[in-house]
Specification:
Helix content is about 30%, strand content about 25%. Helix 8 packs across helix 9. It is α+β, with helices and mostly antiparallel strands.
Length: about 325
């Protein structure tokens, strides 16, 4: 709703007024209503920010939406906080040793929420995303990550919405290994960032694991709504449009591989003219280095920035010309 933009502009105005004078903050959003709300909030927050902020209606997967945002060779900083978990994914399934892509048909009157159809995997984005990482490899460290909870606040939320502090059981891992939800939208966005902003720094913060997922598959989403203050988790994503929230966990190892290998390819090309650096850290480690923890620490010593949301990670990547 524009809060992050207002906070970033406040910080730059206070700490780095020289940079602020030349800074331009642009939000790209598919919703015209949200764009208008962001423009209003930032302007009301501080009139000085109006000349430094713009909100554009556009699809981040469409390269045309990014055109014209650079006037020259400026360095661009791209922020995405809890963006990845809301991005569409493509479902693929292995049948008789062959991977198939999933289409959803709405032609059946008896299934108004759609029916899955498996077809030969031909989509170029799906194929490129699939080839960028070994999506079905067994990773014991990742499996342990999936078992952790989100800290005190997450436990409290579970108690309030379900009446219990226990997590419901998810589908068995063995059943999920032949179904993968590929982050094809994130993959396309990374490509557009590469093409539109050769000199950039990308910062993404999101969930690497989600509790109570009832849908089978690697990177399967949590589909949930709240009825009478109680959480209701679905076993399918084929629900009435707008009736539930759909969240995807992010495999940050895969995200790193896509950025380094498929997007830039510099890890395999010693003659690559670009310097590409990528780091993935827990949000707690990141905030210990960069946040003012004195402000967010309570009298008891509890600090939500580092003690909660333990299922979040920070992805920082940069691309620049080699000197």
């Amino acid at each position: 709703n524009g809060t992050l933009a207002a906070n970033v502009l406040d910080f730059m105005l206070e700490r780095h007024p020289d940079i602020y004078s030349e800074l331009r903050y642009t939000v790209l959003d598919v919703s015209k209503g949200l764009c208008e709300r962001q423009e209003s909030l930032v302007g009301l927050h501080n009139r000085n920010h109006e000349s430094h902020f713009q909100s554009l209606v556009g699809n981040a997967c469409d390269g045309k939406s990014w055109e014209g945002l650079l006037e020259g060779g400026e360095r661009v900083y791209v922020l995405g906080l809890e963006v990845l978990d809301n991005l569409p994914h493509d479902r693929i399934e292995k049948v008789d040793g062959k991977w198939m892509e999933t289409w959803v048909s709405y032609e059946s009157e008896s299934h108004p929420n759609g029916v899955e159809e498996l077809r030969e995997m031909r989509d170029d984005v799906i194929l490129s995303c699939f080839d960028a990482y070994d999506w079905t490899a067994i990773n014991s460290e990742k499996d342990e990550e999936q078992k952790k909870d989100g800290g005190f606040l997450a436990t409290l939320e579970t108690f309030i919405t379900t009446g219990s502090t226990k997590r419901t059981a998810a589908v068995e891992e063995g059943d999920s290994s032949r179904v993968v939800f590929l982050p094809t939208t994130a993959f396309s966005i990374l490509r557009n960032i590469r093409e539109s902003f050769p000199e950039h720094t990308l910062l993404l913060i999101d969930f690497d694991a989600l509790p109570d997922v009832q849908i089978r598959g690697r990177n399967a989403p949590l589909v949930s709504d709240t009825v009478n203050a109680l959480a209701n988790d679905f076993t399918s994503y084929l629900v009435p449009v707008g009736s539930a929230d759909i969240f995807f966990p992010t495999n940050f190892g895969a995200l790193k591989a896509m950025y380094e290998t498929e997007i830039f390819g510099c890890d395999q090309d010693p003659q690559c003219a670009r310097q590409v650096d990528v780091s993935v850290r827990s949000s707690a480690d990141f905030f210990k280095d960069y946040a003012d923890l004195d402000i967010t620490t309570t009298l008891s010593g509890y600090n939500p920035l580092i003690d909660d949301f333990t299922n979040t990670r920070v992805f920082v990547a940069s691309s620049s010309h080699k000197k």
